[in-house]
Each structure stands twice: as structure tokens, then as C-alpha cells.
Amino acid sequence: MLNSWKNQHPATTVLRLWLGITFIYGGWNKATDPGFLDQGSPHYIGAQITGYLSTSPIDFILKHMIEHATLMGWGVMITEFAIGFGVLAGYSLELLSLAGVGLSATLWLSATWSVKPYFLGSDTAYMVLWLALFLLVRGGKSGRNKSKLISGLTDRREVLRLAGVGVLGVVATFSGRIFKNSNPNPESGLTITTVATFPVGSTMNFQAASGEPAVLFRTNAGVFAYSAICTHQGCNVAYDSGKNLLKCPCHGAEFDPAQGAKVITGPAQTPLASIKVAIKGDKIVQI
Ligand code: FES
């Protein structure tokens, strides 16, 4: 492990330190965010993905991820940790650098695609840094080894080491979930409407803090809201006041807002994500 830091180009040292530490921090940041896997939070990974649908060029892929957003969230955290630990340890640097390129490219095409001009979004820079690390590591190999594109996959010890950083990624992710911080909604208090203009019995569409479309209800029991993104494949649901259901125009899924937006008619399998709202003074806010 320590040997991997000797006899390498200073640029490789800088890149390994920066990328390794940053990816571990990225994993920790998500793992300690109580909202990241909480369907009612504006930080929920599913809410983030749905927010990207209107701008991302890979929306046709993202919409299939919505149904499995929580699983994706676990995968992203574990992968970020594993890549970070592996790069610092010096295991299969080529393979992990390419994984870094892939992850950064995916984040660019989804999370930061709408950032203009492009250089203000950091994912493009990370994609290039990972590519530079790949080329540096590959350039430093002897001719024979160079012919193996991914040497880590042909060496049993290297495969075991990679499995080890994967396990370390799982342990770090669970540790982060245990040490979740106490600031779940830093941008809480987003005003949706006023109490006076939204009497009991009202329904309205609004844009949630994550950018996703949402539907707000007020009954005698109080106010509640759901994401309008269908959990099947991401179409926008609409409220049918005749049936008192939220209906999806794409494949006919129906959700009951009076029962936590549970599925009444498929093909959707999971309820719509709930969005936390409350009456604060004379306003109705997302919290
Ligand atoms: S996207 Fe298929 S039912 Fe909504």
C-alpha cells in the first residue's frame, strides 16, 4: 500500500490525494445526510433524480432509476467510498480511475448538465481529473503490463483487495448512517402559498424545493403533499377530483392521496414520495 506512493510522478500523488479524499468525503456527506434516503425529504435521492428529468439528456435512463432510487442511493455511497479508499491504497488504479470517469460523467449528464457555462459545474472537472490519473498510471507502466488494460481483473490478489475496499465502503456507509447529522433540511421553510388563499378542501400543484413537480392538499386533518412524479417511470401524475385519486396518464397508475399516496392501480409498485409541508403562521411551507 505504502509502496504505491513511492516512485510515482508528483502529478499522480496530487491527483490520488485529491480524488481519493474528495470521494471519501462525498460518500460521507451523503451517508450522514438524514434526508438522502428519506422519501419525505427534498434531499431524497429519488427527489433529486426526478428533479433532473426535465434537463438531463439521459432522462430516458434516469426515469427507470426512480423506482429503485433508495437502492441507487446505497450504491452511490458505497461506490464513492470504495473508489476513494482504493485510490488512496493504490489498488487497481486504472480500473478505479475509469470508474471515477464513469461516475463523474453520469453526475455531469444528470446533476450538473443544466449548469451554464459548463465549467461552473464541478463534475466536468472531476471527469477530466480522473481521466488524467488513468493516463498517468497507464503511462507509468512497463510495455508488457501496458497491454493489460485492467490488470486488476487478471490478478487474484488485486481482486481480493478490490473486494476489501468494497467491504470498507459498506462499513463506512453504515457508519455514516449511524452518525447522521441533525440538519436534515437546511433550506427548510420554502413558502408554497398562504393559508388564506388555500382553504380546507383545496388542491394545488407546486414546485418542491428539489425542483420536482408536486401536489399540495389541505383537509380538516391539515396539509400534506406528494411528489407528482410517478414511481413507475417518471411521468407527471395529476389529481382527478372526481375519483379523489392522483392518476398517471402514461400507463394508468392511480394513487390515493388520502392514504399516503399508496398505489390503488398498477403498474406502479411504490407510493408517491411524500413531501413534508406544514402551516407556519399565515403560510403553508415545505419543511
Ligand atoms: S409512468 Fe407508467 S404508470 Fe406512471
UniProtKB/TrEMBL annotation:
Keywords: 2Fe-2S, Disulfide bond, Iron, Iron-sulfur, Membrane, Metal-binding, Transmembrane, Transmembrane helix. GO terms for cellular component: membrane. Residues 211-286 form the Rieske domain. One of its GO terms (molecular function) is metal ion binding. Coiled coil: none annotated. The keyword Isomerase does not apply. The chain crosses the membrane at residues 71-93, 118-138. The keyword Iron-sulfur applies. InterPro entries: DoxD, Rieske_2Fe-2S, Rieske_2Fe-2S_sf, Rieske_Fe-S_prot_C. This is Unannotated protein. It comes from freshwater metagenome.
